[in-house]
Specification:
Distance between the termini: 76 Å
Strand content: 35-45%
CATH topology of the largest domain: Immunoglobulin-like
Shape: elongated
Structural class: alpha+beta
Number of domains: 3
Largest sheet: 6 strands, antiparallel
Radius of gyration: 37 Å
Order of helices and strands: EEHEEHEEEEEEEHEHEEEEEEHEEE
CATH class of the largest domain: Mainly Beta
Length: 336
Protein backbone atom coordinates (compact mmCIF):
# COMPACT_ATOMS: atom_id res chain seq x y z
CA UNK A 1 0.00 0.00 0.00
CA UNK A 2 1.28 3.44 -0.92
CA UNK A 3 2.26 5.62 2.00
CA UNK A 4 2.63 9.35 2.62
CA UNK A 5 6.02 10.84 3.41
CA UNK A 6 6.51 13.68 5.88
CA UNK A 7 9.65 15.77 6.37
CA UNK A 8 10.17 17.77 9.56
CA UNK A 9 13.50 19.47 9.87
CA UNK A 10 16.20 16.89 9.17
CA UNK A 11 13.93 13.94 9.88
CA UNK A 12 11.64 12.08 7.50
CA UNK A 13 8.98 9.47 8.25
CA UNK A 14 5.98 7.83 6.57
CA UNK A 15 2.31 7.55 7.47
CA UNK A 16 -0.25 5.10 6.16
CA UNK A 17 -2.99 7.34 4.75
CA UNK A 18 -4.60 10.78 4.61
CA UNK A 19 -6.56 10.04 7.76
CA UNK A 20 -3.36 9.66 9.76
CA UNK A 21 -2.03 12.90 8.23
CA UNK A 22 -5.20 14.69 9.37
CA UNK A 23 -4.86 13.30 12.89
CA UNK A 24 -1.27 14.55 13.09
CA UNK A 25 -2.44 17.99 12.01
CA UNK A 26 -5.38 18.00 14.44
CA UNK A 27 -3.16 17.04 17.35
CA UNK A 28 -0.54 19.65 16.51
CA UNK A 29 2.07 17.08 15.55
CA UNK A 30 2.12 18.30 11.92
CA UNK A 31 2.79 21.97 11.26
CA UNK A 32 1.88 24.18 8.32
CA UNK A 33 5.55 24.49 7.33
CA UNK A 34 6.21 20.74 7.31
CA UNK A 35 6.70 19.09 3.91
CA UNK A 36 4.40 16.34 2.66
CA UNK A 37 4.70 14.03 -0.36
CA UNK A 38 1.45 12.29 -1.35
CA UNK A 39 1.57 8.67 -2.57
CA UNK A 40 2.86 8.35 -6.16
CA UNK A 41 3.95 12.00 -6.34
CA UNK A 42 7.50 13.22 -6.98
CA UNK A 43 7.01 16.78 -5.73
CA UNK A 44 6.90 17.91 -2.12
CA UNK A 45 4.22 20.25 -0.81
CA UNK A 46 3.91 22.35 2.30
CA UNK A 47 1.26 20.79 4.56
CA UNK A 48 -0.63 24.08 4.31
CA UNK A 49 -0.98 23.55 0.54
CA UNK A 50 -3.22 20.51 1.06
CA UNK A 51 -6.87 21.70 1.15
CA UNK A 52 -7.82 18.85 3.49
CA UNK A 53 -5.40 20.09 6.19
CA UNK A 54 -5.81 23.89 6.07
CA UNK A 55 -8.45 24.07 8.82
CA UNK A 56 -6.57 21.62 11.07
CA UNK A 57 -3.02 23.00 10.96
CA UNK A 58 -1.23 25.21 13.40
CA UNK A 59 1.50 27.54 12.17
CA UNK A 60 5.12 26.40 12.18
CA UNK A 61 6.43 22.85 12.36
CA UNK A 62 5.20 20.45 15.03
CA UNK A 63 8.18 18.12 15.17
CA UNK A 64 6.00 14.98 15.32
CA UNK A 65 5.67 13.67 18.88
CA UNK A 66 9.24 14.40 19.87
CA UNK A 67 10.44 17.17 22.09
CA UNK A 68 12.57 18.66 19.31
CA UNK A 69 12.45 22.36 18.70
CA UNK A 70 10.15 23.21 15.81
CA UNK A 71 11.92 23.42 12.50
CA UNK A 72 12.84 27.02 11.79
CA UNK A 73 13.05 27.78 8.09
CA UNK A 74 15.82 30.22 7.28
CA UNK A 75 14.62 33.74 6.74
CA UNK A 76 15.85 34.54 3.28
CA UNK A 77 14.38 38.02 3.15
CA UNK A 78 17.60 39.84 4.19
CA UNK A 79 19.57 37.82 1.63
CA UNK A 80 17.05 38.58 -1.11
CA UNK A 81 17.10 42.26 -0.24
CA UNK A 82 20.91 42.29 -0.30
CA UNK A 83 20.98 40.59 -3.69
CA UNK A 84 18.43 43.06 -5.02
CA UNK A 85 20.57 45.95 -3.81
CA UNK A 86 23.61 44.47 -5.56
CA UNK A 87 21.67 43.96 -8.78
CA UNK A 88 20.26 47.46 -8.59
CA UNK A 89 23.75 48.80 -8.02
CA UNK A 90 25.13 46.93 -11.04
CA UNK A 91 22.17 48.02 -13.16
CA UNK A 92 22.60 51.59 -11.96
CA UNK A 93 26.28 51.60 -12.87
CA UNK A 94 25.52 50.11 -16.29
CA UNK A 95 22.82 52.70 -16.87
CA UNK A 96 25.14 55.50 -15.78
CA UNK A 97 27.91 54.21 -18.04
CA UNK A 98 25.54 53.85 -21.00
CA UNK A 99 23.95 57.22 -20.32
CA UNK A 100 27.36 58.84 -20.27
CA UNK A 101 28.03 57.40 -23.72
CA UNK A 102 24.68 58.34 -25.28
CA UNK A 103 24.19 61.95 -26.35
CA UNK A 104 21.78 64.18 -24.45
CA UNK A 105 18.20 63.95 -25.66
CA UNK A 106 18.07 67.52 -26.94
CA UNK A 107 21.16 66.81 -29.05
CA UNK A 108 19.85 63.54 -30.38
CA UNK A 109 17.76 64.71 -33.32
CA UNK A 110 18.79 61.67 -35.30
CA UNK A 111 18.20 60.76 -38.91
CA UNK A 112 15.58 63.45 -39.43
CA UNK A 113 15.61 66.95 -40.85
CA UNK A 114 18.62 68.68 -39.36
CA UNK A 115 19.76 65.46 -37.69
CA UNK A 116 22.53 63.02 -38.53
CA UNK A 117 23.08 61.71 -42.00
CA UNK A 118 23.94 58.04 -42.34
CA UNK A 119 27.61 58.91 -42.95
CA UNK A 120 27.95 60.94 -39.77
CA UNK A 121 28.81 59.96 -36.22
CA UNK A 122 28.32 61.33 -32.73
CA UNK A 123 31.27 61.63 -30.38
CA UNK A 124 30.67 59.63 -27.20
CA UNK A 125 34.07 60.05 -25.54
CA UNK A 126 34.49 63.10 -23.34
CA UNK A 127 36.34 64.27 -25.38
CA UNK A 128 37.50 62.17 -28.35
CA UNK A 129 41.22 62.47 -29.00
CA UNK A 130 42.17 63.15 -32.62
CA UNK A 131 45.37 61.48 -33.83
CA UNK A 132 47.51 62.13 -36.86
CA UNK A 133 48.06 58.40 -37.37
CA UNK A 134 45.73 55.43 -36.85
CA UNK A 135 47.89 53.58 -34.35
CA UNK A 136 48.09 53.11 -30.61
CA UNK A 137 50.77 55.25 -29.04
CA UNK A 138 50.49 58.03 -31.59
CA UNK A 139 50.18 61.49 -30.11
CA UNK A 140 46.87 63.34 -30.18
CA UNK A 141 46.87 66.59 -32.12
CA UNK A 142 43.49 67.88 -30.93
CA UNK A 143 40.22 66.76 -29.37
CA UNK A 144 36.52 66.83 -30.24
CA UNK A 145 33.88 67.55 -27.56
CA UNK A 146 31.31 64.93 -26.57
CA UNK A 147 28.08 64.97 -28.61
CA UNK A 148 29.82 66.64 -31.58
CA UNK A 149 28.74 65.60 -35.05
CA UNK A 150 31.58 64.38 -37.30
CA UNK A 151 31.79 63.11 -40.87
CA UNK A 152 33.11 59.63 -41.67
CA UNK A 153 35.96 59.58 -44.19
CA UNK A 154 37.51 56.09 -44.05
CA UNK A 155 38.29 53.17 -41.77
CA UNK A 156 41.53 51.43 -40.90
CA UNK A 157 41.41 48.64 -38.34
CA UNK A 158 40.07 50.02 -35.04
CA UNK A 159 40.20 53.63 -36.24
CA UNK A 160 37.91 55.94 -38.20
CA UNK A 161 39.26 58.79 -40.27
CA UNK A 162 36.88 61.70 -39.69
CA UNK A 163 36.31 65.24 -40.83
CA UNK A 164 35.47 67.75 -38.11
CA UNK A 165 34.90 71.31 -39.25
CA UNK A 166 37.15 70.83 -42.27
CA UNK A 167 40.01 69.16 -40.39
CA UNK A 168 40.74 65.46 -40.88
CA UNK A 169 42.17 63.10 -38.31
CA UNK A 170 41.80 59.67 -36.74
CA UNK A 171 39.65 58.71 -33.77
CA UNK A 172 39.18 55.34 -32.14
CA UNK A 173 36.11 53.37 -33.19
CA UNK A 174 35.04 53.06 -29.54
CA UNK A 175 34.94 56.86 -29.11
CA UNK A 176 32.05 57.44 -31.52
CA UNK A 177 28.59 56.10 -32.35
CA UNK A 178 27.76 55.80 -36.07
CA UNK A 179 24.39 57.24 -37.05
CA UNK A 180 23.20 53.98 -38.55
CA UNK A 181 23.16 52.42 -35.06
CA UNK A 182 19.97 54.40 -34.43
CA UNK A 183 18.21 53.22 -37.60
CA UNK A 184 16.01 50.16 -38.09
CA UNK A 185 17.52 46.69 -38.49
CA UNK A 186 17.28 46.65 -42.29
CA UNK A 187 18.97 50.04 -42.60
CA UNK A 188 21.73 48.97 -40.22
CA UNK A 189 22.42 45.95 -42.38
CA UNK A 190 22.35 48.04 -45.55
CA UNK A 191 24.75 50.67 -44.24
CA UNK A 192 27.18 48.44 -42.39
CA UNK A 193 29.62 48.50 -45.36
CA UNK A 194 29.86 52.30 -45.01
CA UNK A 195 31.31 51.94 -41.51
CA UNK A 196 33.07 48.61 -41.99
CA UNK A 197 34.20 48.66 -45.64
CA UNK A 198 37.23 46.52 -44.86
CA UNK A 199 34.84 43.62 -44.16
CA UNK A 200 33.43 43.78 -47.69
CA UNK A 201 36.42 44.42 -49.97
CA UNK A 202 38.86 41.53 -50.34
CA UNK A 203 42.21 40.84 -51.96
CA UNK A 204 42.01 37.74 -54.20
CA UNK A 205 44.44 35.66 -56.26
CA UNK A 206 47.47 37.62 -55.08
CA UNK A 207 50.96 36.76 -56.36
CA UNK A 208 54.27 38.55 -56.84
CA UNK A 209 57.28 38.48 -59.14
CA UNK A 210 60.61 40.22 -59.84
CA UNK A 211 62.22 40.17 -63.27
CA UNK A 212 66.01 40.67 -63.37
CA UNK A 213 65.77 44.36 -64.26
CA UNK A 214 63.07 44.85 -61.62
CA UNK A 215 65.21 43.15 -59.00
CA UNK A 216 68.03 45.51 -59.87
CA UNK A 217 65.71 48.46 -59.27
CA UNK A 218 64.07 46.87 -56.18
CA UNK A 219 60.72 46.80 -57.95
CA UNK A 220 58.23 44.08 -57.07
CA UNK A 221 55.13 43.45 -59.18
CA UNK A 222 52.02 42.32 -57.31
CA UNK A 223 49.21 40.72 -59.29
CA UNK A 224 45.82 40.66 -57.56
CA UNK A 225 42.07 41.10 -57.84
CA UNK A 226 39.83 43.17 -55.58
CA UNK A 227 36.39 41.73 -54.81
CA UNK A 228 33.61 44.00 -53.54
CA UNK A 229 30.81 42.14 -51.75
CA UNK A 230 28.70 45.19 -50.83
CA UNK A 231 25.98 47.43 -52.28
CA UNK A 232 28.40 50.38 -52.31
CA UNK A 233 31.21 51.29 -54.67
CA UNK A 234 34.57 51.31 -52.89
CA UNK A 235 37.46 53.76 -53.37
CA UNK A 236 40.55 55.26 -51.70
CA UNK A 237 42.02 51.77 -51.35
CA UNK A 238 45.35 51.47 -49.55
CA UNK A 239 47.11 48.11 -49.68
CA UNK A 240 49.92 46.94 -47.41
CA UNK A 241 52.91 45.20 -48.97
CA UNK A 242 54.89 43.03 -46.55
CA UNK A 243 58.16 41.26 -47.35
CA UNK A 244 59.87 38.60 -45.24
CA UNK A 245 63.08 36.60 -45.12
CA UNK A 246 63.33 32.82 -45.30
CA UNK A 247 62.60 32.55 -41.57
CA UNK A 248 59.38 34.54 -41.83
CA UNK A 249 60.84 37.68 -40.27
CA UNK A 250 59.27 40.88 -41.56
CA UNK A 251 61.91 42.93 -43.34
CA UNK A 252 59.80 45.81 -44.62
CA UNK A 253 56.23 47.02 -45.01
CA UNK A 254 54.97 49.68 -47.38
CA UNK A 255 51.59 51.29 -47.87
CA UNK A 256 50.40 51.24 -51.47
CA UNK A 257 47.59 53.68 -52.39
CA UNK A 258 45.41 52.81 -55.38
CA UNK A 259 43.45 55.17 -57.59
CA UNK A 260 39.99 54.37 -58.82
CA UNK A 261 36.86 52.52 -57.85
CA UNK A 262 35.73 48.96 -57.23
CA UNK A 263 32.09 48.77 -58.25
CA UNK A 264 29.46 47.22 -56.00
CA UNK A 265 29.22 43.43 -56.22
CA UNK A 266 32.09 43.39 -58.70
CA UNK A 267 35.65 42.13 -59.04
CA UNK A 268 38.46 44.04 -60.72
CA UNK A 269 42.13 43.53 -61.42
CA UNK A 270 44.65 46.22 -60.60
CA UNK A 271 47.37 47.54 -62.85
CA UNK A 272 49.95 50.21 -63.55
CA UNK A 273 49.62 53.09 -65.99
CA UNK A 274 53.11 54.25 -66.91
CA UNK A 275 53.86 57.95 -67.50
CA UNK A 276 53.86 59.21 -71.09
CA UNK A 277 57.05 58.45 -72.99
CA UNK A 278 59.67 61.04 -72.22
CA UNK A 279 58.06 62.09 -68.94
CA UNK A 280 60.78 61.60 -66.35
CA UNK A 281 59.04 63.53 -63.56
CA UNK A 282 55.73 61.71 -63.15
CA UNK A 283 55.28 58.49 -61.18
CA UNK A 284 53.38 55.46 -62.50
CA UNK A 285 49.68 55.44 -61.58
CA UNK A 286 48.48 52.38 -59.70
CA UNK A 287 44.76 51.89 -60.23
CA UNK A 288 41.85 49.52 -60.62
CA UNK A 289 41.24 48.11 -64.08
CA UNK A 290 37.64 49.37 -63.83
CA UNK A 291 38.83 52.95 -63.62
CA UNK A 292 41.49 52.42 -66.30
CA UNK A 293 38.86 51.11 -68.73
CA UNK A 294 36.75 54.22 -68.12
CA UNK A 295 39.76 56.39 -68.93
CA UNK A 296 40.74 54.31 -71.97
CA UNK A 297 37.24 54.59 -73.41
CA UNK A 298 38.13 58.13 -74.48
CA UNK A 299 41.86 57.55 -75.09
CA UNK A 300 42.76 54.20 -76.62
CA UNK A 301 46.46 55.07 -76.61
CA UNK A 302 46.46 54.51 -72.84
CA UNK A 303 46.54 50.76 -73.55
CA UNK A 304 50.13 51.19 -74.72
CA UNK A 305 51.13 52.37 -71.26
CA UNK A 306 49.02 49.91 -69.24
CA UNK A 307 50.30 46.73 -67.66
CA UNK A 308 48.52 44.31 -65.29
CA UNK A 309 49.76 44.23 -61.71
CA UNK A 310 51.06 47.05 -59.55
CA UNK A 311 54.73 47.94 -59.38
CA UNK A 312 55.93 48.61 -55.84
CA UNK A 313 59.41 49.96 -55.14
CA UNK A 314 60.87 48.55 -51.91
CA UNK A 315 64.13 49.26 -50.12
CA UNK A 316 65.02 45.73 -48.99
CA UNK A 317 66.82 43.19 -51.17
CA UNK A 318 67.07 39.44 -50.87
CA UNK A 319 63.60 38.69 -49.52
CA UNK A 320 61.89 35.38 -50.26
CA UNK A 321 58.25 36.09 -49.38
CA UNK A 322 55.95 38.99 -50.27
CA UNK A 323 52.32 39.53 -49.29
CA UNK A 324 49.76 42.16 -50.21
CA UNK A 325 46.76 42.83 -47.96
CA UNK A 326 43.89 45.27 -47.51
CA UNK A 327 44.78 48.11 -45.17
CA UNK A 328 42.26 50.91 -45.72
CA UNK A 329 39.23 51.62 -47.90
CA UNK A 330 36.26 53.95 -48.13
CA UNK A 331 32.72 53.13 -49.24
CA UNK A 332 31.03 55.74 -51.43
CA UNK A 333 27.72 56.53 -49.72
CA UNK A 334 24.48 56.51 -51.67
CA UNK A 335 20.79 56.15 -50.93
CA UNK A 336 19.70 52.53 -51.15
Amino acid sequence: MSRWLVTQGDRQFSVSDLGEIKELARSGKLGAADMVQPPGASDWLYASELPELKSLLKSGSAGQDFDDEPMVRPNRTPMIIAVLFVLLGVAGFAFFHFASKVPEAQKLNLLGDGGLSLTEMLVTANPAQVHGEPKDGSSASSSIPKDSKIQLVAKRGGWYQVDYKGTKGWVKVDDVVPAYFFADKETREDYDPVYNPDRYLFVKNASWMQLPDQRRDNVTVFQLDLANKSKFDMTDVILLATIKDKNGKVLETKEVPLQGVVKSFDDTMVGTLAPPEGDKESDPQLMTETTFNEMAATDEDLHLRWSPGIEVKLDTQGFVEANIDMLQVRAIPKKI
